[in-house]
Amino acid sequence: MTATHFDREIHPKHSYSPIRQDGLEVPETEIQLDDSPTGPNEPFRIYRTRGPQCEPTEGLPALRAEWIAERGDVASYAGRARNLADDGRSAQKRGAASMEWQGEKRAPLKAVEGKRVTQMHYARQGIITKEMEFVALREHCDPEFVRSEIARGRAILPNNVNHPESEPMIIGRKFLTKINANIGNSAVTSSIEEEVNKLRWATRWGADTVMDLSTGDDIHTTREWILRNSPVPIGTVPIYQALEKVGGIAEDLTWEIFRDTVIEQCEQGVDYMTVHAGVRLPFIPLTTKRVTGIVSRGGSIMAGWCLAHHKESFLYENYDELCEIFAAYDVAFSLGDGLRPGSLADANDTAQFAELKTIGELTKRAWDFDVQVMVEGPGHVPLNMIQDNNELEQKWAHDAPFYTLGPLVTDIAPGYDHITSAIGAAHIAMGGTAMLCYVTPKEHLGLPNRDDVKTGVITYKLAAHAADVAKGHPGARAWDDAMSKARFEFRWHDQFALSLDPDTAQAYHDETLPAEPAKTAHFCSMCGPKFCSMRISQDIRDEFGDKLESQLGMPAFPPTVAEDVQTVEEARAGMAQKSQEFKDLGSKVYLRDEETHAAH
Amino acid sequence: MTATHFDREIHPKHSYSPIRQDGLEVPETEIQLDDSPTGPNEPFRIYRTRGPQCEPTEGLPALRAEWIAERGDVASYAGRARNLADDGRSAQKRGAASMEWQGEKRAPLKAVEGKRVTQMHYARQGIITKEMEFVALREHCDPEFVRSEIARGRAILPNNVNHPESEPMIIGRKFLTKINANIGNSAVTSSIEEEVNKLRWATRWGADTVMDLSTGDDIHTTREWILRNSPVPIGTVPIYQALEKVGGIAEDLTWEIFRDTVIEQCEQGVDYMTVHAGVRLPFIPLTTKRVTGIVSRGGSIMAGWCLAHHKESFLYENYDELCEIFAAYDVAFSLGDGLRPGSLADANDTAQFAELKTIGELTKRAWDFDVQVMVEGPGHVPLNMIQDNNELEQKWAHDAPFYTLGPLVTDIAPGYDHITSAIGAAHIAMGGTAMLCYVTPKEHLGLPNRDDVKTGVITYKLAAHAADVAKGHPGARAWDDAMSKARFEFRWHDQFALSLDPDTAQAYHDETLPAEPAKTAHFCSMCGPKFCSMRISQDIRDEFGDKLESQLGMPAFPPTVAEDVQTVEEARAGMAQKSQEFKDLGSKVYLRDEETHAAH
Predict the structure, then answer these.
(1) pLDDT in tens, B547-582
(2) How far apart are CA A360 and CA A355, in angstroms?
(3) Whether CATH 3.40.190.170 fits A72-477
(4) A465 touches chain B (CB under 8 A)
(5) Is the CB of residue A415 less than 8 Å away from at least one CB of chain B?
(6) Widest Cα–Cα separation across chain A
(7) Domain boundaries defined on chain B
(8) In A, residues 155-174, which contact B (CB 8 Å cutoff)?
(9) Min CA distance, A431 vs chain B (Å)?
(10) Is the CB of A539 less than 8 angstroms away from the CB of B307?
(11) Which residue ranges does UniProt annotate as crossing the membrane (chains A, B) (predicted)?
């Protein structure tokens, strides 16, 4: 692995500018802006996920190690021995993984006997941890609000005690909508180095968490490299690795192999794990009349096992033991929707909702152990059926954060499923989904490469932000306004700097008007230099200044026009009221949003 | 211009397969499908916009010429003389446009004295024209329904008598959602040949109408080439050309120059024209406090004119004369939203809605002349404020078809505005918008090239289709179901053939698994050959077959599970009922949709 080339900021106007308070250093990016004609602009600050940079071989500093130690409720222990089987048959043959982790190996930590070390446990005790303080600074809200949201289970702060490198972040619908990027090798392709590069690439562009979905060689060691280099929480689907350990034969899986795999991953530091414990034996026949059956890989593994043995799922049967393990490391459940629809035709069917109902039951059971939970959602859902998913999830899963894959709103556009799913993602996040799992252009077709990862991340950032704006999240629209002001004033460099993807914005601009003067010119390629609509708007502003419309000395409004304006203003007021009534009467999501914003 | 390379279908499994009925030949594409394990699949048929192919120099056959002539209400006349000023100063200097139209020149037609030749006029007389029959076959509905929708103004069938090459299509919210692609040269770049290629390229991928927004050299002649080669209605913004005629100085515009330009374009065959007659003098000061002022080019031209002269808009003042002209050629109004918001900050403000209210008034006035009307809409609108636009447009503009640009739901993603706007487009179309104007990745940054045009068209096709599915448009979801069935059965070639963009789908697939056997293999690159979730689903299906769940001889449902399934089914029923109540009580859009679907 060579020295990283990710060191530079994504734009020369960006810089690392942390919030420093109470001994914490919370990362943010500051964007320098050029002056407006009317005066200078304050720098604009945005959320930052990329974390500190390091040699991949060294790994990131253990930011949270002291905070964890100070609480005095964990102890280190020997942990599982190095087991080449964790890395698959190639590693066993070779006697090593293809590129063993070269950095420091820490002994794993776990809770001392009788203790639970989850953020939910602390929150319920009324304790505001350093992690919660960090999150409060990052989200610009009150630490007590962070604590209370975690305590009631409406938000999670995923951070395994064995992943002290991660910068605390929160997933919950009262906070900024988050996005997840999937990486991971497969039997078909890809290397450890590529996966670490994808991790850094995804977080550089704004991934809030990353899931390692590896199913190929060197699963254990790839994950080690990823965790030691990840400033964001890492999620996995442990059944994938368990399946590799039994040679890909679902029926050979056992609870013992699964549990051992979970402990292996707990010791490494995985922050949340997808567990398909809601796929119960009696639900499987509910899928037979579907157009696309079971499309979740984990769901079909468990369905395969249940069928082969004609037995209830070992995940469901041993769920309490799993909760005890998770509580000892602070691993969060991501309760997997193994029966999610794989096509519009199968959306919102009985199989899907029977599982969701069960997931709700499992959520409560995890909470009995103070284990944090989020709930996974679909998938493929027509636009008009999306909001039902939010409502049932909130009702049945008791407001646990919802984490959806898209959903895709049509099946007919392979190659464009980042878009078909971003439409659904923005819509479902507006309705209360807390985290969106990205979909790349390669969905249904192949494995994403570096460009696909970036496209997926940027697409989901924009969908998440659109939802934050629509929800009226405090401060969200300021970013749009800063961009629009720069656009109106032809501050091209600021427009690039304020973009989610400055490189692409500038490259597209340069294709038509490459010369540097075009970046300070007061026109663009749409209208050309001769005529510019923005300039006319400026003329209007110059002419009318800040005068009120009524003082303009314009010819008196013709009666129909005065009436137009009046009718318009009444209609706007009327809509605002109607909207309020809607909130008051029916829209639970928004009603709760309002309550919270009033509260913090 | 060389022989076209657009002759081949977009996939080898596609073929031209028209509906032939009552002497009409209505284009459709038939897609051959491979067999399922359970038996053969019927070919799948889709809407086809690309039209017949020809040498660009020859132009398309005049499909509608006879139908127009048979009605006996038009006559040919000399028309305006060839005027090099129509093509700008380069043409005047040169003594010719850079590439004069080489095909047949027909004398223009117009209504004989005292006649109106619009489809709305015929519809109101109870006449079902050939154009309406054609549309009914194309949309798979009753011709009388087409007539009644046009008569009441809720749909338009844009087809100038001087553009007999076009295949009739309809824009209205009871029909398939349509999309428009913008092309056109600018002062900065592009040639006649390029524009004709873009037209053919856009219709190949599914553009339902094309707007020629040229502002550079050879405007008249470029448009001639486009019209003679266009199987879809062509729209323009005549004020752009009028502005060129006065050297780009807005204040030098006059009603006479504008009217002459409109007649020039009527004679050529433009099917609909954007006219910003709703930008009235008193509304202009309403924009001064906006973040982005007036961003519509046409709107700012008119605002510039009004300001310079301190006079009411000549478009508004002379609107009735314009209606008379349009009625004589069957040109439809696209009433331009010159005061549309250019940023989230400016969405749904008084300026925007004052104009919309005025547009409603202008709609009624056009209908007095039997002139067809659609209404243009925003722009940039937060996701939660979109539906208000549909509702006010339907109320104030009396259900005239709504035609929106996106809207973009965030301002922060230049380079990805096809996506930010597709999110808004799908949402607004679900709420009743009839046609969506595409946005390409170059929006705000530069002029779209060929790839951008394709990306814009495909993105908008998927958004329009997602909306059709969400609206429950009869038959819309069949396409998704055909794709999903092919996906479940690993019919890879069928998946490509059923894609909006087969080339991209196949290219992405081949990147990971290039060999031909991989296209018949029963696995994909996501899970690899060893384990396949689709295969497990098939095993489940094989095991349970078509048995009802209750007859499966499964272990009795544990009580909580039986309860889960029961609760789930009650919840689903409850949601359906709630959804119905919502329709009954408040959702006018859907309520009307339901009425209509019941009616035809």
Answers:
(1) 544 444 444 455 566 677 777 777 777 777 765 654
(2) 9
(3) no
(4) yes
(5) yes
(6) 90
(7) 72-477
(8) none
(9) 10
(10) yes
(11) none
